[in-house]
Amino acid sequence: MWRNLKSIARFLRNKRHRETELDVEIRFHMERQTEENVRRGMKSQEARRAAALSVGGIEQIKEECRDARVGRIVEATLQDIRYGLRTLVKHPGFSLTAIVTLALGIGVNTAVFSVVYGILLRSLPYRDGAQLVVLHQEATRAHATDIPFSPKEILDYREHNHT
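User: That's the sequence. What structure does it adopt?
Assistant: Structure tokens below.
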């Protein structure tokens, strides 16, 4: 992991040097292909043109090489952040609206999550809260359900409870 981070840091620091190396390398391959074409019997101009066609566009090859590099994602992200900051500075009204909207959204989200956590997710503030039970009482002959307990019944249950 540290090796990758060092590699990305080196990648971000040496951009100008990398671009020069890439340009030199592509031109080297173009020259080698041109020389190969001349050895095959082509004229100099014709050999250069054939080399350019076989290798492809120089800028296109450079872009493919840039995209294949390890730190390209980090570099692209940093470019996007810089662009976003420039845009926010350029349009302060939009920036204020975006910041207020984000602040309200984050605040409301935090409040709703706090309520949900407090009501649904947090355990009960009793020892062995998961073992609590709810008692219901029915009068089957009277076809009544969920009848409340009288104080005498509650005391009676408390006295005879062995759990």
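The chain is about 75% helix and 0% strand.
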